[in-house]
Write a structure and sequence with these properties.
By secondary structure, the chain is α+β, with helices and mostly antiparallel strands. It has 10 helices and 12 strands.
Length: 356
């Protein structure tokens, strides 16, 4: 008999270092966190036989309903749900009508990738629904990179944020006590030990919500694309630092950030493998300075959050996510006490199926 119920969980992520490098075919070092989104789905067919999706956002107390085939576009959280269903259909995956409920504990708009967590969990739950019980789970029968690309199309084509694959890959590949060094040119994912011991990583919400679709995120992508045209390279991964110095502003500074950030990722990987967390803290500070001055994606609220962490004794702090608000990451050595409002985060397991 086909499966009547399915459930999946997908975590949010924190990007330790390597910001705005993913869509430039660069390097990043994210890790999955314990907080995330849970999606529960139940097969449902109307009395007239029409296949539809009924979606309920439990955290918001809001619902949506739309046809399974060719759902019309919408805004807000509905855009993510409708886009996920539509992209699964376009990719040729068999779907059935369903009631879907989702909720989670990863803050929305805080730079911890609640959107990717929703997309990944929803994809897994819908793919699992209606399948024969003997089948392997979607994570076992479908390459994770294929799932990540599908989710990224939801962001770009349905939500309007031209994101890369960082958030989805971190959610899908996450492992406890491990960061993921992702090469976005080859799409190779290498685990890197992230053993904190008595050190602590925390995130502090700046209090400023952000939306990648309405912020300057897409503008930064356009600037990077223009820099590639002027340099004659397919991506900024191939940019020459000396040639980039001749670019007009602000393109010169955008490229300087990407080149420097790729180098900082490699340095962070080496520091983690050597167990040198103090060096990681210094790299976080350097990354934030570049994001603030060269990439210009910080805000007054973000700067205040960074200062609060550093004044509390953080070895390093930087904005995380797309910028223009959201959360700030801080690394604290043993004996240093983060602010009371900060939330500790630790690298945890990635997306997984749950008992329905």
């Amino acid at each position: 008999m086909p499966r009547e119920r399915s459930a999946a969980f997908a975590p949010g992520r924190v990007n330790l270092i390597g910001e705005h490098t993913d869509y430039n075919e660069g390097l990043a070092l994210p890790f999955a966190i314990g907080e995330g989104v849970t999606v529960r789905a139940e097969a449902s067919t109307r009395s007239d036989g029409e296949q539809r999706i009924e979606a309920y956002a439990s955290d918001l107390g809001e619902r949506d309903e739309f046809p399974l085939q060719d759902p019309p576009p919408e805004a807000g959280w509905r855009a993510f749900v409708r886009g996920t269903v539509a992209e699964l259909g376009r990719a040729g995956f068999p779907l059935i009508g369903a009631r879907v409920e989702f909720g989670g504990d990863v803050p929305q708009g805080a730079g911890l990738s609640s959107s990717a967590a929703l997309e990944v969990a929803l994809v897994l739950a819908l793919l699992d629904l209606g399948g024969e019980p003997a089948w392997a789970s979607p994570l076992e029968r479908i390459p994770r990179i294929e799932l990540a690309r599908l989710c990224s199309r939801v962001e770009s084509d349905w939500v309007g944020a031209q994101t890369g694959l960082l958030d989805q890959l971190a959610s899908l590949y996450g492992t406890s006590d491990t960061a993921l060094c992702i090469d976005f040119k080859s799409l190779r994912v290498d685990p890197v030990p992230l053993r904190l011991g008595r050190w602590r990583l925390v995130v502090l919400d700046s209090g400023e919500r952000h939306s990648l679709a309405s912020s300057g995120y897409n503008q930064r992508r356009e600037e990077c694309a223009r820099a590639c045209e002027l340099l004659g390279v397919p991506s900024l991964r191939d940019a020459d630092a000396d040639a980039a110095q001749r670019l007009p502003e602000p393109l010169r500074r955008r490229v300087a950030h990407v080149i420097g950030e790729n180098r900082r990722v490699l340095d962070a990987v080496a520091a983690l493998r050597a167990g040198d967390l103090a060096a990681v803290g210094e790299l976080l500070n350097a990354s934030h300075a570049s994001l603030r001055d060269d990439y210009e994606i910080s805000t007054a609220a973000v700067e205040a959050a960074v200062s609060q962490l550093l004044e509390a004794g953080a070895a390093g702090a930087r904005l995380v996510g797309g910028g223009f608000g959201g959360s700030v990451l801080g690394l604290f050595a043993p004996g240093s006490e983060p602010p009371a409002a900060a939330r500790e985060v630790r690298p945890g397991p990635g997306a997984r199926m749950l008992d329905a």
